[in-house]
Amino acid sequence: MTTNGAGGIWVVAEQVAGRINSVSYELLNKAQQLKNQLQKPEPVVAVILGKGAEGLEQLSNYGAEEIITVFAEELEIYQNDLYVAVLQALIEEKKPSIVLIGATAIGQDLAPMLGARLKTGVAAHCVDVRINENNQMVAVVPAFGGKVLGDILCPNTSPQMATLKPGVLGKPVPLEKPAAVVTAFDPSAVLQEDQGRIKALEIVREEQTGVPLEEAEVIVAGGWGIGSRENWDLVEELARLLGGAVGCTRPVVDEQWVQSEQQMIGTSGKSVRPKVYLAFGISGATHHLCGMKDSGLVISVNKDATAPIFEASDVRIVGDARTILTALIKRIKG
Amino acid sequence: MSLNITVCIKPVPDPDYYDKITIDPVKKTITRAGIPTIINPVDKNAVEAALQVKEKLGGKVVVITMAPPNAEENLRELLAMGADEAVLLTDRAFAGADTLATSYALAAGLKKSGPFDLVFTGTESADGATSQVPAQLAEWLDIPHLWNVQEFEVEDHTLKAKMSMENGYINYLVQMPALLAVKRSINKPRYTTVMGVMKAKKKPLTVLTAADLDVEPERLGLQGSPTKAGDIFTPSLARKGQQLTGETEEIVEQLIQVLRGAGLNLESLNVNEAGRE
Amino acid sequence: MGFFQFTEEQEMLRKAVREFVEAEIAPHAAEWDEKHYCPVELFPKMGEMGITGIFVPEEYGGAGLGHVERAICLEEISRYSAGLGIALMTHHLGIAPILYFGTDEQKQKYLPDLAAGKKICGLSVTEPGGGSDFMGLKATGEFKDGQWVINGRKCFITNASVADVDIWAVVTGQDEKGRALMTVFIIDKDTPGHAPGREENKIGLNGSSTGDVICNDVVLGEEAVLGEVNKGAKIALSAIQEIGRAGMAAISVGILRGCLEEGVKFSNERILYGKPLNRLQAIQFIIAENRVAYEAAKLLTYHAASLKDAGKPCANEFSMAKLFATEAAIEAAKKTIDLMGGYGCINEYPVGRFLRDAIATIPAGGTSHIQKIIIAGNAIRGN
Ligand SMILES: Cc1cc2nc3c(=O)[nH]c(=O)nc-3n(C[C@H](O)[C@H](O)[C@H](O)COP(=O)(O)OP(=O)(O)OC[C@H]3O[C@@H](n4cnc5c(N)ncnc54)[C@H](O)[C@@H]3O)c2cc1C
Ligand SMILES: Cc1cc2nc3c(=O)[nH]c(=O)nc-3n(C[C@H](O)[C@H](O)[C@H](O)COP(=O)(O)OP(=O)(O)OC[C@H]3O[C@@H](n4cnc5c(N)ncnc54)[C@H](O)[C@@H]3O)c2cc1C
Ligand SMILES: Cc1cc2nc3c(=O)[nH]c(=O)nc-3n(C[C@H](O)[C@H](O)[C@H](O)COP(=O)(O)OP(=O)(O)OC[C@H]3O[C@@H](n4cnc5c(N)ncnc54)[C@H](O)[C@@H]3O)c2cc1C
């Protein structure tokens, strides 16, 4: 099998409850870059499944030249059997050469399943993709908690697929370009074949409080070295004073000092890139570092002068987290 | 109801040592010398989930891995934890497999090792960490699956399960046989007891090679992998840092300067804070 | 005599116990020490693990293993908390006489709960009059109207305030040469007249409770007699020799490993003259000495335990193991403190506790002097 026809660089845009996930825009920006690197440019296409979605023009703004909508009652909530059947049908018909999917909970489920159906390779939660001199997509895939990066190619099967971690590509930028052509794909034939092995019952959204990590310009992050739930209040307070978001490491989630797993930064958590990242009582395990390494200024406080976090920091303070937090809060409050 | 439950487990280098991993600059191989091999941590949650189902509804728990021969030790550990049988798929032909080829071999191993009503995996391995094996395994087995499962219940031949996602979750009904890839937070794996260790020796551990499986050889290992590995490297995260020293107050003063230098307007923040109160 | 080696199962068992210890014991050891708290809530958990009843046969609810396995458990626990180590070791010390000398009824009555860690056991021998003078015990048992009446005070008793079942050695008569004849009794915690007395404030091993136990006209039926009347000395002595000293040796092996590991860790991390501390030869010497002490104590201890499991004489071997391991642990802890410089004296690091614990192991199970007397006596007699 080789790439054929007009091909296309596809982005499977994710919507949850009708709202498009911002990772879709990051991927569209990236798809536009890939297009320019290809020997023969191919169109950038966004595919969106659901019952409907608000703000389709945003997909266009961030890079989609064509939008394929697949809207049906049955597709309202993500259901892997149905979504994959639809995408398989679409891909087999239109034969894109590249398919990009956000490495969200949904995307990380959808992509490998689709890859298995199409018997093609999928590069997993990549930190970057590019086109090489042979006109092939090279995906940069982290392994060993981010300590190792490997280039993954998919030279012999089509399409070339990759999932990309939300946040790793940086903030998406709107592009100056004509509005996308929107075409609707009728999934009813595919949906009729569904065997009903799996059925979505309901989707429940959890309230988010405070500044979302992905958007924060300042992140105050704490680790196991914060020591206790009471001390954790200091981390929250500093974040509030600086107008920033609160991040954490895995032990903090395990200790339940934070309310939600969504505050974890790292391989199994968020990838963030604030202007300023303050790390208190964080050792700097690879798993954590690879989620914050793209931050602007990194300031860290640790009582152990040999803690690996210092290697990855611009400003180092060897000292007690609680003492520094308390003094800094006092100083800012004046 | 008596259920046949299979759990897929992967031996991995202990993640506590990943800071020490290096890459041979010439051979471009990952050096993991001296790093102990352990059971992929979340796979123990998968085994725990399986044991809980068995304890509630009856049945049998089989653990299976595709791994080098010394994985027998890891399988024995899981037999000691409470699994009833273990299957090791080991063959040079499996080497170099990407997730599609890995899941293909695993699927063949699962079919060979008997019927199953439920298959458990972890969400992701600590080393390769693609999280792609569960969905692809389910595809090769032609059964439904859910990934990132936070809670589930077995009712008759149906599963009620909660897939966790960013800021929320989705509840599903899934018909069995089915595969569930479980999250770390789903349970706390039990300790292996002294009694468990003693029983482990008498439990069956079967070793299967490619020749024992009903497989197309060209779908195995490197040959059967649509993805190909290119360059491999360790990213440098090092920054040229400056250390702040002195008494706490002096350090904080310097820190304030640094934050201002980074463009934070602390005074206005301060006012805002005051205004809010 | 074959050299001792662990079986594959024993290695697996060690790993399983270690995982338990690292999660349930290591994080709390310092706090227990500081608060002088014996974590009784861990007994049922150790019961589920099979640790509390490790050498109790399966028919009585135990794991049905032996004394090598017991030593593995004690070593692993004492690597982090020698205090809990001695509480557990004494629990075993009380179980052993019931198991080896009890009637089937006594075993049925006591062993299942003790093996499961639902109840805690203790052994009360030492009295204020001197632990070394075993034959000089003062506590008495009198047979009156078909019942036994026990009176006396025991001191330095581990688990004094937490034990549910207390094994007592008392004087019940004299032989023709006027020497004390002893009988051993099983006493339930709530028996009227039986009560814990003062609680000692020890130098170390503070994850265990130690104190007086008093019997004031405690009335017991004949079913409380363990073994035969007037033949209890052998029962108490064999428990002390083959269970008590074995346990103290294994606990000290755990402390020795703690010293070795903490010393290596510190010397890897501490930067001095711009280099890790471990580059200094003086520091390497301490590490080498600690390593050899650990290995030697381990060999003596597990070898003796394997003799016990093989049903061979082992009292002398346990004396040697106990003497060497406990003394070596003190040395190693002191040297590790030296290795760490000022940090060694800071209680955030565990080695100070290791030293205090090691010192407290010396009298328990018989002092070093007593061990030397036994070992020398055997050597002189050609044993
Ligand atoms: C640097 C690097 C990058 C890689 N990138 C890719 C890539 O982009 N795409 C790709 O297809 N492959 C990739 N691989 C190869 C991939 O890691 C291997 O195929 C691996 O054997 C299986 O995937 P995983 O470890 O990621 O498992 P995951 O899919 O993360 O594992 C999830 C669960 O599947 C089960 N499982 C996984 N492996 C086994 C096994 N061998 N036996 C039993 N159960 C198992 C376990 O329950 C586990 O918890 C990469 C490898 C490296 C080293
Ligand atoms: C598969 C897998 C995925 C993972 N994914 C993630 C992930 O996404 N994100 C993540 O964060 N982790 C992740 N981890 C865990 C990761 O490996 C580390 O264990 C974790 O990041 C360590 O968190 P920590 O720095 O808070 O704790 P520790 O490593 O325990 O470090 C605590 C630090 O605090 C310092 N300290 C202690 N007391 C004080 C004090 N009073 N003042 C100042 N400093 C003090 C100590 O010197 C130490 O450096 C993952 C692990 C695995 C196996
Ligand atoms: C932490 C701890 C826990 C204990 N737990 C228990 C328990 O659970 N049950 C129990 O029954 N007892 C227990 N003991 C008591 C222990 O068995 C005694 O402390 C020990 O037998 C010594 O007795 P003693 O303290 O009365 O010292 P003494 O016998 O008074 O000895 C004082 C000194 O004289 C030396 N000495 C004595 N006799 C001789 C001799 N013949 N030759 C040379 N030197 C000699 C001793 O070595 C010592 O240096 C415990 C002790 C400790 C410290």
What's the topology here?
The complex is a heterotrimer of chains A (334), B (277) and C (383).
Chain A: E1 9-13, E2 15-16, E3 19-20, H1 23-37, E4 44-50, H2 56-61, E5 66-71, H3 80-94, E6 98-102, H4 105-118, E7 122-126, E8 128-131, E9 137-143, E10 148-153, E11 160-164, E12 181-184, H5 188-192, E13 198-205, E14 218-222, H6 229-241, E15 245-248, H7 250-255, E16 276-280, H8 286-292, E17 297-302, E18 315-318, H9 321-333
Parallel strand pairs in A: 1-4, 1-6, 4-5, 5-12, 6-11, 7-11, 14-15, 14-16, 16-17, 17-18
Antiparallel strand pairs in A: 2-3, 8-9, 9-10
Helix pairs in contact in A: 3-4, 6-9
Chain B: E1 3-8, E2 11-13, E3 22-23, E4 30-31, E5 37-39, H1 41-57, E6 59-66, H2 72-81, E7 85-89, H3 99-112, E8 118-122, H4 133-141, E9 145-155, E10 158-165, E11 168-175, E12 178-182, H5 194-200, E13 205-208, E14 228-233, E15 242-243, H6 248-261, H7 266-276
Parallel strand pairs in B: 1-6, 1-8, 6-7, 7-13, 8-12, 9-12
Antiparallel strand pairs in B: 2-5, 3-4, 9-10, 10-11
Helix pairs in contact in B: 2-5, 3-4
Chain C: H1 8-24, H2 29-35, H3 42-49, H4 67-80, H5 82-101, H6 104-115, E1 121-124, E2 140-144, E3 147-158, E4 165-174, E5 180-188, E6 194-199, E7 210-220, E8 225-226, H7 232-269, E9 271-272, E10 275-276, H8 281-309, H9 315-339, H10 351-361, H11 368-380
The structure holds flavin-adenine dinucleotide (3 copies).
Structure notes:
The complex is a heterotrimer of chains A (334), B (277) and C (383). With 334 residues, chain A is an alpha/beta fold. Chain A contains nine helices and 18 strands. Chain A has two domains: 185 residues, HUPs (Rossmann fold), CATH 3.40.50; 121 residues, Rossmann fold. In chain A, the strands form four sheets. Chain A has a seven-stranded parallel beta sheet, with helices on both faces. In chain A, helix 6 links the parallel strand 14 and strand 15. The radius of gyration of chain A is 22 Å and the shape is elongated. Chain B is of the alpha/beta class. Chain B folds into two domains: 222 residues, HUPs (Rossmann fold), CATH 3.40.50; 39 residues, no CATH class. Chain B is built from seven helices and 15 strands. In chain B, 50% of the residues are buried. Chain C is α+β, with helices and mostly antiparallel strands. Chain C is built from eleven helices and ten strands. In chain C, strand 2 and strand 3 form a beta hairpin. In chain C, helix 7 runs antiparallel to helix 10. The chains are: A alpha/beta (334), B alpha/beta (277), C alpha+beta (383). The interface between A and B is large, with 94 and 84 residues. Strand 13 of chain A pairs antiparallel with strand 11 of chain B. The complex binds flavin-adenine dinucleotide (3 copies). One flavin-adenine dinucleotide (FAD) sits at the interface of chains A and B.
